[in-house]
Each structure stands twice: as structure tokens, then as C-alpha cells.
Amino acid sequence: MKKKTVFIISIVIIILLLLIITLNVNGNLVLKSENYTIGLIAPLSGTGAGVGIPMSEGMQMAVDEINQNKGINSNKLKLIVQDGKFGIESVNTANYIINTQEPDILVTLFQPPAEIIAPIAIENNIPLLYNAYVRSIKEKSNLIFKANFDSASGCEELTKFAKDNNKYEKLAIVFPNIGFAQECFEGIKKVEPNVEEFWYNVDEKDYRTILLKVNQKNIDRIFVVGFDYHFINLFNQLNKYNYPIKIMAATTSETLPKTIIKNMTNDFLKGTLTIDIININIDDSEFAKKYKKYITRKELTHLDYASAAEGYDSVMLISKAMEKCKPKNTNCLINALENVKDHKTVNGNTGFKNRILQNTNKIYEFNNGWIRLN
User: Fold this and answer.
1) Do the beta carbons of residue 67 and residue 314 sit within 8 Å?
2) Would you state the pLDDT for residue 279?
3) What is the gyration radius of the CA atoms in the chain, in angstroms?
4) Whose CA is closest to 235, among 275, 254, 363?
5) How far is C-alpha 77 from the chain's CA centre?
6) Helix orientation angle between 302-322 and 49-68, rounded to the nearest 10 degrees
7) Torsion angle, CA of 325/360/347/226, rounded to 10 degrees?
């Protein structure tokens, strides 16, 4: 009998201890805290790392800021970062995050990784926010949301500005064979149906033949989009042969960073038109000062600040949506993302429309420095 009594008392004590542990300082019963989790798959080495590293830093800075301000609904926000290496490695990293961290949402950047990760996110019923120019990926599922510059509408806007302001007589595209460039071309053709076409493979390094053909056709302006490794060679070759051809580009941050500009003459760059969602003066902004203090790297470029701002804005947008939902509630988070408003931003986006983040494009012209035209 005594053993039975001791056993019952022990059970009661254990229950009481568990209840005490779950009491908060005000004496209210609360459930065990759960974390909100964002999984980032980004190139942190090799191709694309120049964007992936600062973007991850901007995201972590936002996460730390949120957690220092009581988190989300009194829960912590976690950021899990894995190196997707711009390609097939994204499969392993996405599966690792899903299987070990149970993320509320996945985030990635660039078209190739987003194409790879989208089916995995859909299969596991996890929302995906991708930062890339291309729209087509978000059409795969209502789980998928697009951020960053939108090549379809942005290229249309820049072409319309150039045409309305007599910035060219004969226009050509010099584009890589990739989805965001094709969407950009469709936007251009809405404004300028007579545009000449010159396409190249994404691994191309020699553009001399294309530029010779462009010059022979008396084209006075070319529209370029692509990756930074394209533009270094393309612009150097255009500059070397001194063709009377001006550039129109999307976007300013990725197409004409200071590392390219410093090797070009003012005469070559004069009249260059670009468009971007990033403010050209972001290097001198309050965000830039905060970011510079946050990280240990000393040498920072315009692309670093721009990419960090994209990451910061992505987390602020996601966290605002998470305020409406409990952790791991996918249906709630999708609905909240579609309707998120009044979130803290650096670039001034206004939320999603048809799962495309709405940004204000800035049009610039180079004349001994960038001048904003709109």
C-alpha cells in the first residue's frame, strides 16, 4: 500500500513540476515555444557567391533585429543557411533543410537554383520565395512567390522610356539564352517590335562576332541582360573596338558595378541607360552604415549593399506575414504573404500582386556619374 501511495505522489509531483515549467512570469499557462524557421539555399561559393553571401548577411541581420525586438508572436525566428552552389547541389541542401529543420518557408536566388528547388518545395508543401528576374517559376504553384527585379515589366518600362525620349534610332538585344532574358525580350517587343536579336549561350565569353554584326547593321544602342561574368568581357570588347554603340541594361547593380565602370572611359559610358529596383545611392544610406557595422568584411561594393538589402527586405516581408500565423501553418502563411502590407523595407516594395513583389523601378543615365531620370 505504501509503495502505491509513493508512486501516486511521485506522479502528482511530476505533473505539478511540468505545469510549473510551462507557467510564464505572470502566472499564465503557455504552450511550449516554437520557432519560426526560414531556410535559405544560396550560392555561397563559386558562381553567384558575390550575391549569395551579402544576401545571407542581410537576412541574418534582419533576423537578429527581429529577435532582439521580442521575435514574432514571442517566438524566435531562425535562419538556416546552406550553400546551394548555383546548381544541382541545391537539391541536397533543400532536402537537408526540410528533413532536419522543418522550415516554414524556403528562400533562394537566381533562376537556376529556383528552378531546381521549386518542385521540392511543392512536393513538401512548403512556400518558396525566390529572388530572380524570371516570372515563370512562380506559375508552377501558389506556394511560390517572386521577389527582385521583374524582367518582363522592367524591360518594357526601360524601352518605353528610351523610345519616348529618343534615346536610340535602331535597337538590338544581346541576350543569353535563358528564361529571364526571354521574358525581358517579350517586354521590349511590346514597345519596340523592330528590335534586332542577337542571342548567345550562357557560358559564352567571346562577343566579338556579335558586336561586329551589330556594328555592321548600324545599330546605335544594345539592350543587355545577364550575369556579371558576361558583362566584364562584353563591355571590354565593345570598348576595345570603339564601336559607336550605346548600352541599355537591366539591372544597374548587376550589369554595371564599379568593378566594370572603373575600367571604362566616361566617353564610352556616357549615355548608358539602366534600370533597377535598388537606389544608386544605397552605398551612403543608413542601411549601408548599419550593414557595414554588422559584418566583419572591410571592402564592400554596391552589389554587396544591394544584395544585403534584398535579403533584409525578404526577411522583413516574411516576418510580417508570419505575425498572422502559428509556426508551420502553410495555408495561413501563403494567404498572409499574398496580403502582407506595411512591412519594413529598404527598397520600398509594397507587397505582392499575383505573387510578384511590387517594386518601384529607378531609371538612370550615366554622365560622369549616374543621374536618375524618373
Assistant:
1) no
2) 93
3) 25
4) 254
5) 20
6) 40
7) 100
